[in-house]
Amino acid sequence: MVLRLPKSWSICSTRSTSCSSSRPPAPPGWRKATTGTTRASTAIDWIRFNCHLTDKAAGDLVAVGRNSGGLPESAQAMQAGEIGYSHLVVLARTAEAVGKAFDETKLLKLAREHTPGRFYFKCQHYRHSLDAKGYAQEQADLVENRHVSLSAAEDGCLLINGVLDPVGGAVVRAALEPLARKSDAEDERDLPKRYADVLVELAHGGKPANLQITASVDTVKALTGAAGGEMEFSLPVSSTTVQRMACDCSVMRVLLDQESVVVDVGRSKRVISGPARRALKARDGHCQWAGCDRPASRCDGHHLVHWINGGNTELSNLILLCHRHHWLVHEGGWQLVKTTDGQMMPIAPTVQFARSRGPD
Ligand SMILES: [Zn+2]
Ligand SMILES: [Zn+2]
Hints:
The protein is of the alpha+beta class. Helices cover 39% and strands 13% of the residues. The protein has 13 helices and ten strands. It has helices at residues 43-51, 55-67, 72-79, 85-98, 104-113, 116-130, 132-144, 166-179, 191-204, 217-220, 239-247, 274-284, 323-330, and strands spanning 147-152, 158-163, 212-216, 230-231, 252-256, 262-265, 299-303, 318-322, 335-338, 344-347. The strands form four sheets. It has a four-stranded mixed β-sheet with strand order 4-3-5-6. A two-stranded antiparallel ribbon has the order 1-2. The protein has a two-stranded antiparallel ribbon with strand order 7-8. Helix 6 packs across helix 7 (132-144). The longest helix has 15 residues, at 116-130. The relative contact order is 0.06. The structure holds zinc ion (2 copies). The site of one zinc ion has 7 residues, from helix 11, strand 7 and helix 13. One zinc ion binds next to helix 11, strand 7 and helix 13.
């Protein structure tokens, strides 16, 4: 691809301010090249609009072009097929960052030996070796850019958007990755879904959460005509969700009668007490869903017969289930059946097909 920029148009990054004051006026008409209304303020913008590239791809082209004079051996190596264009981009970006200290011969040797991703990693070490203070300042700048925004969609879903610095991000990933592995061979969730489940699990599982759920007794019993339950930051929640959250008794619950008078607060007599919970953890050790080995510390205590239906808190009526499988039992409609050898066998919900309509 041959790219012709307007004559005398200086090339500068979208983040650079060094050439803004000496920028010549752009030739008439070129700004409208793509959308008719877009006004490019930098060369990267111009390339982006006219060549239909992403910001990064346009920035890479500019970086390579700007530093090509200092990369003669690298350009030759790319033409000879010894390195790829991605290597050349990393070399150009590194040359831009370290200035006169750039040692093309040394880095080209590394480029020939490593994949672009690994080579980028090596170049970061190289940059640190040349200017540790500058590298630290860059990292500090990235921390300043951190942000996470939480907003609620109309349907009540939580929208999460944000940026973490490399070290903070690595800490988060180190916590998420081990828990985001597939829980068993039949786990069909893709990675984004598993990340979502892990976030909720980390926020809620393994310890009493600071959650309070308010519902009527009718709601917990899932009686027809009952309103939904309520919890902070959420739209009304379904009775099956109320049942699950009240099942382990790890949430503070407030039950109301039909006149909205409080009839039950807290975890009271139905709580799985400390000794009972320890005994449950010792007996089960991990989630009791067949094939799932989520450890006890990340599990809820599930009542096989819910206390709202008269179930007790004896060990014989309790099993450990991880957050996902506890959800499947309550909201997902799965059933757990105890086999003769004491194992819990999950039974999938019955799929009901709509009856075909008869002739009118
Ligand atoms: Zn349960
Ligand atoms: Zn499980």
